[in-house]
Amino acid sequence: MGGENREAFLKFENVKKSYDQKNLVVKDFTLDVKEGEFLTLLGPSGSGKSTVLMMLAGFEGVTSGDISILGTSITKTAPYKRNIGVVFQNYALFPHMTISENLGYPLSVRKMPKEQIKERVAKYLKLIEMEEFGGRYPGQLSGGQKQRVALSRALIFEPTMILMDEPLGALDKKLREQMQYEITRLHKKLGFTVVYVTHDQTEALSMSDRIAVFNDGVVQQCDAPAVLYERPSNAFVADFIGENNFIPGKVGRIENGIADVKPSDGGSIKAQAADGIGENDNCIVSIRPEKLFIQPTEHAYDNELTAVFESRYYVGDFIRYQFKLPDGTEINIKVLNDLAAPDFDEGQEGTLVWQEKDCFAYPV
Ligand code: ADP
Ligand code: MG
């Protein structure tokens, strides 16, 4: 009955992939995707993201495990029978066909009557606000326009799911942002399920309902963007998403999920104990540059460390500071430009403060 309890739309169960019968590039992938969800696979190059997408599209077989849609296995289903739209980085429009012919192609392959194709093409040209471009050839369009047509062509046969592999990788920053907005708008309007691949964390954070962070063929964490950023479950995710400072230390007592960490320079840090950390373990404590403050401040903070000032950079919307701890650990701090951003002399000491809720102790 309840939406939360319904069967997953798309299910990966213990999916493994090897290209050479030896090394697994996807190690044991298990994930449920809800209907209408925007799921992103994010990770460094070579981490197995495209391989997962290829197996879902049916262009690569699974080595073991199963992929199913609404409870029916699709691992043996031919790609064109999976009813999945695909968009890649290289636009792959047919150069000798007009834009309208390109858009109509997936429909004529599916034997839709000519009149209906005409109507549908008009509708999908309008959807991407390119009504007047139907008669042009791909060579007469800009990169961004071509990618909008590619997107429209993947959607035009109204698949239940659409896969995109770094679709904006070839576009410059401004066009990328426009297209991110365009894809999000179409997703909201039409409600299809998306599995999106990118190595760009900003893109992933701004577009997705959930992000699966990959490293070396293994999902490190799969959560909503804010959860990934605010509560990374391990040091890889803490380092890969956004920026972080890492302070080495040793865990003393852990009480109510809060670890008392002794940094190598002495003193004490209160940090949230991440999964897998125990008393007397070596650890690293993570704290994001924008969660650190330089005293004096208006508020009280749980943690403080003394550090030596090294440099201060003006970056426009914020000021970036670099401090060094006595053991040599570099600490980066971002202070919003509209707050009082203090000046220091080189070598001068400063007191850095932060909340325990913003820092985590991870096993090393
Ligand atoms: P990503 O998309 O995250 O960059 P891929 O899924 O493309 O990663 O690649 C994962 C690993 O599999 C890499 O080591 C890559 O070299 C290897 N790989 C990808 N495609 C093939 C292929 N067709 N044949 C052999 N190895 C491949
Ligand atoms: Mg890839």
Series of secondary-structure elements, N-terminal to C-terminal: EEEHEEEHHHEHEHEEHHEEEEEEEEEE
Strand content: 25-35%
Structural class: alpha+beta
- Count of helical segments? 8
| Overall domain count | 2
Query: What would you give as the CATH superfamily of the largest domain?
Result: P-loop containing nucleotide triphosphate hydrolases
Biggest sheet, strands in spatial order? 6-7-8-3-9-10
How helix-rich are the residues, as a percent range?
A: 10-25%
Distance between the amino and carboxyl termini: 44 Å
Hetero compounds: adenosine-5'-diphosphate, magnesium ion
Radius of gyration: 25 Å
| pLDDT < 50 runs, ≥5 residues | none
What does this molecule look like?
Helix content is 23%, strand content 35%. 34% of the residues are buried. The protein has 364 residues and is of the alpha+beta class. The model has no long low-confidence stretch (mean pLDDT 92). The chain has two domains: 10-235, P-loop containing nucleotide triphosphate hydrolases (Rossmann fold, 3-Layer(aba) Sandwich), CATH 3.40.50; 243-363, Nucleic acid-binding proteins (OB fold (Dihydrolipoamide Acetyltransferase, E2P), Beta Barrel), CATH 2.40.50.140. Helix 2 (99-109) crosses helix 3, helix 2 (99-109) runs parallel beside helix 4 and helix 4 (143-155) runs parallel beside helix 5 (173-190). It has helices at 49-57, 99-109, 114-127, 143-155, 173-190, 201-207, 225-230, 235-240; strands spanning 10-18, 24-33, 38-42, 64-69, 72-73, 84-88, 161-165, 193-198, 210-215, 218-223, 245-255, 258-263, 269-273, 282-287, 293-294, 303-314, 318-324, 330-336, 349-354, 359-363. Strand 16 and strand 17 (318-324) form a beta hairpin. The protein is elongated. The chain binds adenosine-5'-diphosphate (ADP) and magnesium ion.
